[in-house]
Automatic annotation (TrEMBL):
Subcellular location: Cell membrane
Annotated source species: Microbacterium deminutum
Chain positions covered by the region annotation Disordered: 375-396
UniProt name for this protein: MraY family glycosyltransferase
Residues passing through the membrane, by range: 6-27, 48-66, 78-96, 108-128, 140-159, 166-185, 197-215, 227-247, 267-289, 320-344, 350-370
Keyword terms: Cell membrane, Membrane, Transferase, Transmembrane, Transmembrane helix
Xref: Pfam families: Glycos_transf_4 (PF00953)
Biased composition (Polar residues): 375-387
Length: 396
């Protein structure tokens, strides 16, 4: 665990220092676009923070290559270099889009290419699904499923990038929960080492988000742009996919020692990586349906995302971001508690997670949809008639 903590601190420190440098250089050379119609901010703000995040992530990977504790996934360096190569590609395209506003077809093509690099050259594919010991027998089915999963998560994370600190905070919470899950899962399956690629990527993303958030918190000095959001989605999907290579579906689905509830023992390992990005996926799905029904491209920008709707309800920018944080934490922690309950035979097993989730979701619904005090009509003060003045100057 100490090595993971060091990775988080190292990545956060490098990312913060580089983000501050990118911010200063962007202001000096005016490397920021104008305000668009769908933007919430009113002041032109640099959008190149993704560069700093990528360099921080790259530095963490390179340092890990010299750490004997992480030699387990550097034993086959092709996978790691494929991840870094795909990440570099998506960051370059994201930076180009942040500067020149690329056509959505170019961006989508680059996303499929980056996902293909990870699946084909990195050999990180969904070979098995821990659902009753299901194996993906066809290599082309595995490749296609992997590529589409990565592209969907990338766009889901990118779609919610609309408020100060929103993506960085949501990904920080999601990767924090996923790190705890992957670490416990590897330990509980009896692996000889707790060090694995999935937990390492999650730790690196935690550090990158921590380091970037101080400059991205409302009012933001620096945005991560498409480069940062697409990078986070790419690496989050990659870490979730790599965890499927650690698990033996037969153990998860058929062995009572892995969890008292075979049903939850089978489904939680695949559900948790999904629910940690549930909110971005929901926003992504609604946006695609909305735009296609209007006869538009599914990637055409608009101002009807969930965070935009919350602003229209009367929530402030910061309130909306905190509500999104709460949703992410409640949903992901509920599934984590279900796993812990079944694994460690808590009283009530998964019911603790269910109760926590139901209460949390109810509270989040109330906070989300109840009108904010700022949106309610304010009572007008009743003015009292002025009393005649006894001051002679008032008469004169």
């Amino acid at each position: 665990m100490k090595q993971y903590i060091f990775t988080i601190i190292f990545t956060a420190t490098i990312t913060y220092a580089l983000a501050w440098g990118v911010w200063r250089l962007s202001l000096k050379y005016r490397l920021y676009p104008g305000i668009r119609d769908r933007d919430v901010h009113k002041t032109p703000t640099p959008r190149l923070g993704g560069i700093a995040m990528f360099l921080g992530v790259t530095a963490a990977f390179l340092v890990s290559s010299q750490n004997p504790y992480f030699a387990i996934f550097w034993a086959d360096p092709v996978s790691v270099w494929a991840i870094l190569g795909a990440t570099l590609l998506i960051v370059l395209v994201g930076v180009a889009d942040d500067v020149w506003d690329l056509d959505w077809m170019i961006k989508l093509g680059a996303q499929f290419l980056a996902a293909g690099i990870i699946a084909w050259f990195g050999q990180l594919q969904i070979y098995s699904l821990p659902i009753g010991g299901l194996w993906v027998n066809s290599s082309w089915v595995s490749f296609t499923l992997t590529v589409f999963s990565i592209v969907i998560v990338m766009n889901a994370v990118n779609f919610i990038d609309g408020l100060d600190g929103l993506v960085a905070g949501v990904c920080l919470i999601a990767n924090g929960v996923f790190f705890a899950y992957s670490y416990m899962l590897v330990r509980d399956t009896g692996a000889s080492s707790y060090f694995n690629l999935a937990s390492f990527i999650a730790a690196v993303l935690i550090g990158a988000c921590i380091g970037f958030l101080p400059l991205n918190w409302s009012p933001a000095k620096l945005f991560m742009g498409d480069a940062g959001a697409l990078m986070l989605g790419l690496l989050m999907a990659t870490s979730a996919i790599s965890i499927t290579g650690i698990l033996d579906p037969a153990i998860v689905g058929d062995n009572d020692e892995f969890g008292r509830s075979q049903l939850l023992g089978a489904f939680i390992p695949i559900l948790l990586p999904i629910v940690v990005v549930l909110l971005p996926l929901l926003d992504f799905g609604l946006a695609v349906i909305r735009r296609m029904r209007a006869g538009k491209s599914p990637f055409s920008p608009d101002r009807k995302h969930l965070h935009h709707r919350m602003l229209d309800m009367g929530h402030t920018d910061r309130d909306a971001v905190l509500v999104f944080y709460s949703w992410t934490a409640i949903v992901s922690l509920s599934f984590l508690l279900m796993y812990i309950g079944t694994q460690y035979q808590w009283p009530g097993d998964y019911l603790i997670g269910v109760v926590f989730g139901v209460v949390g979701v109810a509270a989040c619904l109330a906070v989300t949809f109840l009108p904010s005090r700022r949106s309610l009509p304010q009572p007008q003060s009743v003015s009292t008639p002025e009393r005649p003045s006894n001051d002679l100057r008032a008469v004169v």
